[in-house]
Specification:
The complex is a heterodimer.
Chain A: E1 14-17, E2 26-32, H1 36-43, E3 44-46, E4 61-69, E5 72-82, E6 93-99, H2 102-114, E7 118-119, H3 124-131, H4 137-148, H5 152-162, H6 165-189, H7 200-229, E8 231-237, H8 243-251, E9 271-275, E10 278-284, H9 294-309, E11 312-318, H10 324-337, E12 342-348, H11 356-367, E13 371-373, H12 382-392, H13 409-430, H14 435-453, H15 458-468
Parallel strand pairs in A: 1-7, 8-10, 8-11, 11-12, 12-13
Antiparallel strand pairs in A: 1-2, 2-6, 3-4, 4-5, 5-6, 9-10
Helix pairs in contact in A: 3-4, 4-5, 5-7, 6-7, 6-14, 6-15, 7-13, 10-11, 13-14
Chain B: E1 2-7, H1 11-22, E2 27-31, E3 45-47, H2 51-61, H3 65-72, E4 73-79, E5 89-94, H4 96-109, E6 113-117, E7 120-126, E8 129-135, E9 140-148, E10 157-160, E11 163-166, H5 179-185, E12 190-197, E13 200-202, E14 212-214, E15 238-242, H6 245-252, H7 276-282, E16 290-295, E17 302-306, H8 314-321, E18 332-334, E19 337-344, E20 361-363, H9 373-391, H10 405-415, H11 440-451, H12 456-478, E21 480-481, H13 483-489, E22 502-503, H14 504-507, H15 515-521, H16 523-532, H17 536-547, H18 549-567, H19 584-593, H20 598-602, H21 609-618
Helix pairs in contact in B: 1-9, 2-9, 2-11, 3-4, 6-8, 11-12, 12-17, 15-16
Classes of the chains: A alpha/beta, B alpha+beta.
Binding site for GTP (chain A): 240-245, 259-265, 284-287
Protein name (chain A): tRNA modification GTPase MnmE
Keywords (chain A): Cytoplasm, GTP-binding, Hydrolase, Magnesium, Metal-binding, Nucleotide-binding, Potassium, tRNA processing
């Protein structure tokens, strides 16, 4: 094969802030693509006034100097040069490390944008790395999660996944499926050959085992997505039960991540807080009550949808109100409608209620949920609530690095489908249905697993057969 | 000047010439030996798993193979009957001589077709276009297009023990020399493959008290949708025996004189059809292998020793055969041998089977690295159709993977990297439940009709059949079968008694329930149904469609999922170097195969899903 050396066509120059927004010691702004070396030359002056051009700079070289926009110097920076294809995106890249602080960083980014860069879309650097063949899909997703990882354990999961733990596990499972499939194909294509076929009992055992493995991974998504996405927590309750106060109290000074910088990869919509290494994504909901007003009606519909997606519900009840028992019944009903989600009843305004202790006991027996006595406006009961919340998702922080977790929805869906196909296969085996239908289900399962691990080709099936069996008259 | 010249009159060449002539092109078929057309050089049998389906497809498209085997078969069996309808596969032993004679008569009867006994030793190309073929005699024959179907003849080399000599098919037939070199000069790349055949023995020297008889099926269905019933045809038996520990010991003593093990054979042989020495060598734990004794015809004593393909020295072959129970006194008529030959990797052809390097030049059969009469005939047929259409400036007919095994075959050829002779397996077809032998007419007659090989009346018959199937299915969906009738039909031990009635369509999904049984139980239902159709083949289709319904729907869904990729055309001149983001392996494979569609590209090993996304972006989605 005579092939020309690769000269990948670089994409247009893009820039973005690469470090979390907030006050830190240092921050990094990076750019990638066509012409970034020229752009860097426009904004950067090397310290000491020596003549310097990025176009002559070697890859992996660092340069100290000043970065200026049209109005003057922005900051002292260190510029790190990557030359194509030896960079993350396989394009020319320049990274500027500057002093942390939102204002400096924003000015620096603005200077680059003014000099010819376009603001990167969320995930665009990773996408370029993927499209250039630098990383595969699974790695791209893991990097995506790493960037978005907001807690220590989530970070560990992403790293573990990058190291191929999940890949390895899936490869093993795929090999098992391939083997079962090959044994069935043997019966179909080589029925006239002098080979022994696997018994249906043995096949059932093996398919059952594989399904069990897949289901274990499917199950792990429940924890896996809590780790990376946080525990979706909604605060529900009647208007004026004190939901907003609770939200603010919970976020308090722990309000960890706030970013409204458009175009960066960290546009967080929900408000998050971390307690004991577990992240909670808090959503306040419109008050739940019957309403004729269209706007409010829409809001309530949204609230119910939020509730149905929640991992954890905090149901606020004004314990000082006369009809607090009616509210308890509403909480119970909501709990029954969403048995998958956990619920904590927050009995608010206990400082205003007469016989608070008695009322809490009543709420407890009425809702069969943990009840936290609280005076949100004073901050009473807040710590107890947080501990209870963490307790509801107990076990999360105990997941150690060796465990394999499914953390992406795409993987979850694919595995869920594979498990369904195997379930069909098991039913067909029990019903003594013909081999080609069982093979159909096993092939579907292989295809679904293949959506994560890469496609399966029929040559692999045939190779498996030829390697093991004496085929051919 | 002829429109089309076909070089080679094997299974590919005969179908190619007939298809070209029948679709209205004047055609010349050239063969070195016109007494040996459509020769079964190896196993005297047509069909089998996947191959039987292909034979039926060839028939639906207007080819000849199915009719030929219906006329000359000596034993018919439906394989895989214990499995579902998609796996049912017709197979027949042929009278080898009668098959050749039948095909010769058909070729001679074709008005648009001339025959010439000569050997094509080269091609002439002008301006990237096929110009003419060069004959042994030195003559140049011009034509609009040519189809090369050279089988194993190109620089054929036969091995028996440490002896080897030039041979095209058998020891008696000379190879073709010069043509490979001429093609290489025209820009093609060639490589070597190997295949082999077992010895033939005298059927009078077999002890029939020891070997086990295998009879044909009673009342077998015909291969061809147009043949009348073959149910009453005379059939003869095959016989089963097996090698012994002693056989293996004897054969091992010849391993030091094996051209396979000594490295004399360069070509790659098929793993699915290994020689007996290969089987003994690789599967040491087996102390016995099946041997099938298959008669070569009604009027010959030659018997084919299926399972004993070998290139060991003759003395070892005889001693080995005589150690097999029932063959102690066996007389060998001719020894087994291995043959090496040139082929051209099919990444050099388009899915129309036209070569990429030379316009109006087509390859079909073993020259493309395939094995098997049915695989060859299918390619010959499609090459004949498409060469003829090309000259008439009509677009080629492409069968998709979901249309036919033939579609799978050709797509595999142009996208796979196999370096062993390619054989069709049902596992290679992702739409196996749709690609059944029983519905080949419904799937493919329209293509045959478009090609001009299926006449209007025959095509109308198929349309009517389809219409009856549709109406009968609707009828079955609309009529309720009362509970008591159902209970009388269902085996008591398998099912709880039904309390309510059920639509006939649902009842037909239950095991053991057929339209015929419903007819017997419900005279009124039967009367009404027979008004729609009394054709048992229509009933069969309705039953299969309903029983497989859920699966067929899922297969169709998959077909639709990939249909978009199949319709996205990649120009042959597409500049893969300029596309950013292709993996280097993907780029290399794409440059090698130059796929015609994104669908094809997606099936090339080494081209990743992300490469496909990148190409999709480049093609503007």
């Amino acid at each position: 094969m005579t092939e020309r050396p690769l000269t990948p066509e670089a994409g247009e120059a893009i820039a973005a802030i690469a470090t979390p927004v907030g006050v830190g010691a240092l921050a990094i702004v990076r750019m990638s693509g066509r012409g970034v070396l020229e752009i860097a030359d426009r904004v950067f002056r090397k310290k000491g006034g020596t003549a310097f051009s990025f176009k002559e700079a070697e890859g992996f070289s660092a340069h100290f100097g000043t970065l200026s926009d049209s109005r003057g110097m922005v900051d002292e920076v260190i510029a790190l040069v990557f030359r194509a294809p030896s960079s993350f995106t396989m394009e020319d890249m320049v990274e500027f490390t500057c002093h942390g602080g939102p204002v400096v960083v924003r000015h620096l980014l603005q200077a680059l944008l003014d000099s010819g860069c376009r603001l990167a879309e969320p995930g665009e650097f990773t996408r370029r790395a993927f499209l250039s063949g630098r990383i595969d899909l699974l790695q791209a997703e893991a990097i995506g999660e790493m960037i978005h990882a907001r807690t220590e354990s989530a970070f560990r999961t992403a790293v573990t996944q990058m190291q191929g733990n999940l890949s390895r596990h899936l490869q093993e499972m795929r090999a098992g499926l391939l083997q079962s499939c090959a044994l069935l194909e043997l019966e179909l294509d080589f029925s006239e050959d002098d080979v022994e076929f696997q018994s249906r009992d043995a096949l059932r055992l093996e398919v059952g085992r594989l399904q069990g493995e897949i289901l274990r991974l499917v199950e792990s998504y429940r924890e896996g997505h809590l780790l990376t996405e946080g525990v979706a927590t909604v605060i529900a309750g009647r208007p004026n039960a004190g939901k907003s106060t609770l939200l603010n109290a919970l976020l308090g000074h722990e309000r960890a991540i706030v970013s409204h910088m458009p175009g960066t990869t960290r546009d967080y919509i929900e408000e998050c807080f971390i307690h004991e290494k577990t992240m909670f994504r808090l959503t306040d909901t419109a008050g739940l009550r019957e309403s004729d007003e269209a706007v409010e009606h829409e809001g309530i519909k949204r609230s119910y949808r939020k509730i149905s997606e929640a991992d954890l519900m905090l149901y606020m009840i004004d314990s000082s109100s006369g009809d607090f028992l009616k509210e308890a019944a509403a909480a119970r009903e909501l709990r029954q409608r969403h048995p998958e989600s956990g619920m904590i009843v927050v009995a608010n305004k206990t400082d205003l209620a007469s016989d608070a202790g008695g009322r809490i006991a009543q709420l407890q027996s009425e809702t069969a949920c943990p009840v936290i006595a609280m005076a949100a406006s004073k901050g009473d009961g807040l710590n107890e609530l947080k501990s209870t919340m963490a307790g509801m998702v107990e076990g999360l922080d105990k997941l150690h690095e060796a465990s394999v977790l499914v953390t992406s929805l795409r993987h979850y869906e694919a595995l869920r489908n594979a498990a369904d196909s195997l379930d069909n296969a098991l039913q067909l085996i029990s019903a003594r249905e013909p081999a080609e239908l069982i093979a159909f289900e096993l092939r579907s399962a292989l295809d679904y697993v293949g959506e994560i691990t890469g496609k399966v080709v029929s040559e692999e099936l045939l190779n498996t057969i030829f390697d093991q069996f004496c085929i051919g008259k | 000047m002829y429109d089309i010249i076909v070089a080679g009159a094997g299974h590919a060449g005969c179908e190619a010439a007939l298809a070209a002539a029948r679709s209205g092109s004047s055609c010349l078929l050239i063969s070195s030996d016109l007494t040996a057309v459509a020769r079964m050089s190896c196993n005297p049998a047509i069909g089998g798993v996947a191959k039987g389906q292909i034979t039926r497809e060839i028939d639906a498209l207007g080819g000849e193979m199915a009719k030929a085997i219906d006329a000359t078969g000596i034993q018919f069996r439906m394989l895989n009957l214990s499995k579902g309808p998609a796996m049912h596969s017709p197979r027949a032993q042929a009278d080898r001589t009668a098959y050749t004679e039948y095909m010769k008569r058909v070729l001679e009867a074709e008005t648009n077709l001339d025959l010439l006994q000569d050997t094509v030793t080269g091609i002439e190309v002008r301006g990237g276009q096929f110009f003419g073929v060069e004959l042994q005699s030195g003559r140049i024959l011009r034509a609009g297009a040519a189809i090369l179907t050279c089988g194993t003849f190109l620089n054929g080399l036969i091995h028996i023990g440490m002896n080897h000599f030039p041979g095209g098919r058998t020891i008696a037939e000379p190879p073709v020399t010069g043509l490979t070199e001429s093609l290489v000069a025209a820009g093609f790349t060639t490589a070597r493959l190997k295949t082999g055949t077992p010895p033939r023995v005298d059927r009078r020297s077999i002890d029939y008290s020891i070997v086990i008889e295998q009879k044909g099926d009673e009342n077998p269905p015909p291969f061809s949708f147009s043949s009348g019933s073959i149910a009453g045809k005379e059939q003869i038996s095959c016989f089963l025996t097996k090698t012994t520990h002693k056989t293996h010991e004897i054969l091992r003593t010849g391993f030091d004189r094996s051209p396979l093990f000594s490295g004399k054979v360069q070509g790659v042989g098929p793993r699915y059809c290994p020689s007996i020495e290969d089987k003994i060598h690789r599967f040491t734990e087996r102390d016995s292998h099946h041997i099938f004794l298959e008669p070569e015809g009604f009027h010959t004593n030659e018997m084919y020793v299926n399972g004993f393909s070998t290139s060991l020295p003759e003395d070892i072959q005889i001693a080995g055969l005589q150690s097999i129970p029932g063959m102690e006194e066996v007389k060998m008529i001719r020894p087994g041998y291995a043959i090496e030959y040139d082929y051209f990797h099919p990444s050099q052809i388009r899915r129309s089977l036209e070569t990429k390097a030379v316009e109006n030049l087509y390859f079909a059969g073993q020259i493309n690295g395939t094995s098997g009469y049915e695989e060859a005939a299918a390619q010959g047929l499609m090459a004949g159709i498409n060469a003829s259409r090309k000259l008439k400036e009509l677009p080629p007919i492409h069968l998709q993977r979901s249309d036919a095994y033939i579609g799978v075959l050709i797509d595999d050829l142009v996208t796979k990297e196999t370096n062993e002779p390619y054989r069709m397996f049902t596992s290679s077809a992702e739409h196996r439940l749709i690609l059944r032998h029983d519905n080949a007419d419904l799937r493919l007659r329209k293509f045959g009709h478009t090609a001009g090989l299926v006449d209007d009346d025959t095509y109308r018959e198929t349309l009517n059949k389809n219409d009856e199937i549709v109406r009968m299915t609707a009828f079955a969906r609309s009529r309720t079968i009362p509970a008591e009738a159902l209970n009388s039909l269902l085996p008591a031990e398998l099912n709880r008694p039904m309390t309510g009635g059920q639509k006939a369509a649902s009842a037909l999904k239950r095991p053991g329930i057929t339209l015929n049984r419903l007819f017997a139980a419900l005279p009124d239902f039967a009367k009404e149904a027979r008004l729609i159709s009394s054709n048992p083949l229509v009933h069969e289709q309705v039953e299969i469609n309903l029983a497989y319904e859920g699966y067929l729907k899922r297969e169709l869904l998959q077909t639709e999922k990939v249909a978009r990729l199949e319709s996205l055309i990649l120009p042959e001149t597409f500049n893969y170097h300029s596309v950013t983001g292709l993996s280097s392996e993907g780029r290399e494979k794409l440059l090698h195969f130059r796929p015609e569609t994104l669908g094809q590209a997606s099936r090339i090993m080494g081209v990743s899903p992300s490469d496909i996304s990148v190409l999709m972006v480049r093609l503007g989605r």
